[in-house]
Amino acid sequence: MRFTLKKEEKLKSKRLIGALFDKGKSLSKYPLRLVYLKVEHTSDYPIQVAFSAPKRRFKKAVDRNRIKRLLRESYRKNKHLLYEAVDEKYVIMFTYIDENELKYVEIEEKMIILLKKLLEKINS
After folding, report:
1. Crossing angle, helix 61-78 and helix 104-123, to 10 degrees?
2. What is the CATH number of domain 7-123?
């Protein structure tokens, strides 16, 4: 498996994002929150993903963009955990909920824990 995050894997549809927040289920491992929903989408990839950092907590766009970049990178390196175990199509949103920016290593640890939690929920 290639460790890339292509354009087709990114969640951009406003309709799907709206459905995700209306009907989706949530998991969290501080400082990350994951909202997921099993839904049919047009992408060839089984999972479409989006990342967010709230403007309320991070006033400067530079800070929000850095956090989203760290989230994307940690997901990109560990998405193989999901792809190996998932058959259906899902949309996922990661949100950073802490007010302070953590180091990349800490974010990646929490991301791995959260992905494993998601797999447990999906498979049960």
Report:
1. 50
2. 3.30.230.10
Show Cβ contacts of residue 99 under 8 Å, excluding neighbours closer than 6 positions.
57
Q: How far is CA 42 from the centre of its chain?
A: 18
pTM for this predicted structure: 0.93
Question: What does the domain layout of the chain look like in residue ranges?
Answer: 7-123
Query: Got the DSSP string for 45-102?
Result: SSEEEEEE--TTT--SHHHHHHHHHHHHHHHHHHTHHHHTT--S-EEEEEEE--SSPP
pLDDT tens digits for 24-73? 999 999 999 999 999 998 889 999 999 999 999 999 999 999 999 999 99
Res 38: pLDDT? 95
